[in-house]
Design goal:
- The protein is α/β, with parallel strands linked by helices.
- It has helices spanning 2-20, 39-47, 119-123; strands at residues 25-27, 51-57, 64-69, 76-77, 84-85, 98-102, 105-106, 112-113, 132-136, 157-160, 163-165.
- The strands form 3 sheets. Strands 3-2-1-6-9-10-11 form a 7-stranded mixed sheet.
- Strand 1 (25-27), helix 2 and strand 2 (51-57) form a beta-alpha-beta unit.
- It is globular.
- The protein starts with a helix and ends in a 6-residue tail after the last strand.
Length: 171
């Protein structure tokens, strides 16, 4: 129940930001495990004419590309994996206006702790300086953690079940 409420909160908060700031290209992820689902957000964005891109793991198993897709229903299961991925063409990272980033934890400076593969940490620096980077996770996962490393990406905002927070969160 809480997870569904968080998904709805995320959808409402980020759709409002995308529309108010004319953020047309939105990067999402297909949730696995305890990650906050983005299906509700994806469907709302599609209805309002936004372009969606999702991550696809490259053959090296480390780097990702974000690729165009018609939404979550168009994602396909990666062989021998739980990941759902797009089959569309990769987009230039500088075209992405808003990216929703899965995270295990964020610290007080909104530096993210991911799953340990480093795919997002390698991808995020390729984005435009104007791309809004938002983490999606439960409020009790915003905690101090160590060691923070130089490659741990800093996000602009976080959306928890309580709302959108961060020094760079649009008002």
């Amino acid at each position: 129940m809480l997870r569904r409420a968080h998904e709805v909160r995320l959808a409402g908060e980020l759709l409002a930001i995308a529309q108010a700031n004319e953020l047309q290209v939105v990067a999402l992820y297909a949730a696995i495990g305890v990650e906050v689902p983005t299906r509700e957000l994806a469907n709302l964005l599609l209805v309002h004419g936004h372009k969606l891109v999702y991550p696809r793991l490259r053959a090296d198993g480390v780097l990702i590309d974000f690729c165009s897709t018609d939404g979550p229903a168009a994602l396909v299961k990666r062989p021998r994996s739980r990941l759902l991925e797009p089959v569309g063409a990769p987009v230039d990272p500088r075209e992405i206006n808003l990216i929703v980033v899965p995270s295990l934890a964020l610290d007080g400076q909104l530096r993210r702790l991911g799953r340990g593969g480093g795919s997002y940490d390698r991808y995020l620096p390729q984005l435009s300086d104007h791309t809004l980077r938002v983490g999606a996770l439960a409020a009790d996962c915003v905690v101090a953690w160590q060691p923070v490393q130089a490659h741990d990406a800093q996000l602009d905002a976080v959306c928890t079940e309580h709302g959108l927070f961060g020094s760079h969160a649009p008002q």
